[in-house]
Structure formats: structure tokens, C-alpha cells
Amino acid sequence: MNKNNNNTELKKVRLKIDEIDSKIIKLIADRFKEIHKVTKLKDSHDQIIDHERITHILKTVQIKAKKNKIDPDIITRIWQIFIQEAIKLEYAKVKKS
Predict the structure, then answer these.
(1) What is the average per-residue pLDDT within 61-81?
(2) 3-class SS at 94?
């Protein structure tokens, strides 16, 4: 392949990556909309952190990562951020007990 073909192909691939990023952002927004619903279902701060649920989520995404040939450690770190941000949001929204 010559340099012009490489540049053209690179632009196409980057556009596809940008499209995927947009879809990921939409899905993250959808996830956080659901978390907002969760905050309305919890009555106190002591209901916010559910260690069993967190363990289940992390195990599940690790399995899915492996099936999709993605490093499970990367997915775990990403989901830990999601979980930490959800916890912060819940503490801000759920009534203090």
C-alpha cells in the first residue's frame, strides 16, 4: 500500500472509531439514567454499597471480556470507574439515614 492509501484507510478507521465512541457514550448515558432510577428506590445511605452486586458485576464483565478477546483487567478497571461514579451519584441523591 502506498502512503496515500494508508492515509485514506487511516481516516476511515478513525471515523469508525469515532462512531463507536459515540455509541459507547450513549450507552454510558443510558446506564447512568438507570442509576438515577436506582437512587429513587433506595431509602438510605446504608443501601448504597452492595458488595455482592459489585462482585457479581465485575465477574460478569470479566467473563464477557474474555469471550470477546479483551483483557479482563482493562474491563475491570473501566467498570470500577463506573461503579465508583455510581456510588458517588447515589450518595449525593439518596436520603441520608
Answers:
(1) 98
(2) coil
